[in-house]
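dumping this here so i dont lose it
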């Protein structure tokens, strides 16, 4: 679908919702969707499960890059996990075995253990003792109010916010730089966004006010609140789980943000203001105003 690029004298723009992605298991592969329902905590099933050590500490691609090769498939009643050399694992969507406390970054939260079969599957594929847990939707984590303007923003096992927004133009700009330096271009899956917009200039998502999606009577309102500081995960090829520093090194040349201690940013963390229960669809128009700080 061609991008829409419409501006008026009030610095208003209309973009297009060009991609929707959920990542059912934190740090495993994502799923591209044509449509997704919004929950209070973000897109339905996003980061609803997480892999942990036997003591409950979360693990990610940062230390176990082969997690990128675990590919979930969401079906009506179950989730199917596939990985190279492994038999498929089927997990009912509404099942869990026993409660347990787990730790993700500085938060200790109550979750649900998914049982010994799932634990053995992940332990065998990733080469160390691990377990799979499911978030308790009744006990979400809360985003930092330092960036939400004091608003409560619940989320599950994501790093810090319920949604991540990026633009296709931002990726195109990165790939132009990678090509000029003799590197291969990369896909958006390196950056693990939930929502991808077309019709923007590169990194315009950094300076957008409220995003308005859908008709007024069922409008979804999303607010970008904080630039997403990138860890080494975008250096990992999702197809091979091999790491190359080219992506991070290239971003470092033009995306260091002094407000965040020089952290390299790509995409914007966002929170939900209105629209829980509504369905987002690829192709929907998205309107917003620019923010001028």
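and the seq i came up w/
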């Amino acid at each position: 679908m061609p991008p829409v690029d419409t501006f008026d004298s009030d610095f208003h723009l209309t973009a297009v919702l060009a991609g929707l992605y959920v990542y059912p298991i934190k740090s495993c592969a994502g799923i591209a969707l044509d449509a997704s329902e919004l929950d209070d905590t973000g897109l339905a099933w996003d980061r609803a499960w997480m892999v942990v050590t036997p003591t409950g500490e979360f693990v990610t691609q940062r230390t176990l890059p082969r997690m990128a090769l675990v590919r979930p498939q969401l079906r009506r009643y179950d989730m199917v996990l596939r990985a190279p050399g492994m038999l498929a694992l089927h997990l009912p969507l509404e099942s869990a075995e026993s409660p347990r406390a787990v730790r993700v970054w500085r938060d200790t939260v109550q979750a649900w253990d998914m049982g010994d079969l799932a634990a053995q599957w992940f332990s065998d594929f990733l080469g160390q003792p691990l377990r799979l847990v499911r978030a308790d939707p009744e006990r979400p984590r809360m985003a930092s109010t330092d960036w939400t303007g004091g608003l409560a923003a619940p989320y599950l096992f994501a790093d810090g916010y319920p949604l991540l927004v990026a633009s296709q133009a931002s990726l195109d700009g990165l790939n132009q730089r990678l090509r000029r330096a003799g590197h291969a271009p990369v896909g958006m899956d390196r950056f693990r966004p939930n929502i991808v917009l077309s019709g923007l200039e590169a990194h315009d998502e950094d300076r957008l006010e409220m995003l308005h999606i859908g008709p007024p009577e069922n409008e979804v309102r999303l607010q970008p609140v904080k630039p997403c500081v990138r860890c080494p995960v975008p250096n990992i090829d999702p197809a091979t789980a091999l790491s190359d520093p080219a992506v991070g090194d290239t971003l470092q040349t033009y995306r260091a943000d002094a407000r965040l201690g020089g952290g390299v940013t790509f995409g914007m963390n966002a929170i939900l203001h209105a629209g829980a229960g509504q369905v987002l669809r690829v192709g929907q128009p998205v309107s917003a105003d620019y923010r001028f700080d």
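The radius of gyration is 19 Å.
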